[in-house]
Specification:
The complex is a heterodimer.
Chain A lengths: L3 E3 L3 E4 L5 E7 L5 E8 L3 E10 L2 E4 L6 E7 L2 E6 L8 E8 L9 E2 L3 E5 L1
Parallel strand pairs in A: 2-11
Antiparallel strand pairs in A: 1-3, 3-8, 4-5, 4-9, 5-6, 7-8, 9-10, 9-11
Chain B lengths: L3 E3 L2 E5 L4 E6 L6 E7 L6 E7 L10 E6 L4 E6 L8 E8 L7 E2 L3 E6 L1
Parallel strand pairs in B: 2-10
Antiparallel strand pairs in B: 1-3, 3-7, 4-5, 4-8, 6-7, 8-9, 8-10
Classes of the chains: A mainly beta, B mainly beta.
């Protein structure tokens, strides 16, 4: 089975901290995504990557950056965490041609910024 | 730009039918449907592709109206296990990006 693993289920960070959310997939997928999930707003795309060192902004990239140094790992970085970044963060991966293929999601990281 | 889902929430009794709609302002190449149970990751249900090809599983079906850029998910004879939040995801423009709607919370009561 495809597995997408996020490093933490729950995180509590202080305002202004630099925060790293890690995601690893084991199926050699080209595409990886970071979504933010908030009540009533659904899943909003922050960034995605279609190859090592390649990235594209999604719908809400402000305040975030990403890193993909290896194919299996995609990191989301909050440069200076703020309380409005408190949310559930979901990582996903899919084979090449995301619009044609099933995406596999991780369990999510619930981040609280205090 | 996120696709728009309706209704936002629906409550039904076991055995009843439900329809969830998804529409986009962009020309669509594909529509994905996922279900997320509370505290779990979203799980793939099916993809509908431009041109009519359809994939799926379980006893849930869907349609894709390319001209109207809309998709509908049909749940017939609902089971308790159908409860969860349903998301549609749309692929358009870039082949790599998958954009999801705000979700429809479905509750099936015994």
């Amino acid at each position: 089975d495809v597995k997408v693993t996020q490093s933490s289920r729950y995180l509590v960070k202080r305002t202004g901290e630099k925060v790293f959310l890690e995601c690893v997939q084991d199926m050699d997928h080209e595409n990886m995504f970071w979504y933010r999930q908030d009540p009533g707003l659904g899943l909003r795309l922050i960034y995605f990557s279609y190859d090592v060192k390649m990235k594209e902004k999604g719908d809400i990239p402000e305040g975030y950056s990403v890193s993909r140094e290896k194919k299996e790992r995609f990191s989301l970085i909050l440069e200076s965490a703020s309380t409005n970044q408190t949310s559930m963060y979901l990582c996903a991966s899919s084979p090449l041609g995301a619009r044609l293929a099933e995406a596999f999601f991780g369990q999510g990281t619930r981040l609280t910024v205090v | 730009q996120q696709p728009v889902q309706s209704p936002q929430a629906v409550i039904l009794r076991e055995g009843e039918d439900a329809v969830i709609n998804c529409s986009s302002s962009k020309a669509l190449y594909s529509v994905h449907w996922y279900r997320q149970k509370h505290g779990e990751a979203p799980v793939f249900l099916m993809i509908l592709l431009k041109g009519g090809e359809q994939k799926g599983h379980e006893k849930i079906s869907a349609s894709f109206n390319e001209k109207k850029q809309q998709s509908s998910l049909y749940l017939t004879a609902s089971q308790l296990s159908y409860s969860g939040t349903y998301f549609c995801g749309t692929g358009s423009g870039s082949a790599r990006q998958l954009t999801f709607g705000s979700g429809t919370q479905l509750t099936v009561l015994p």
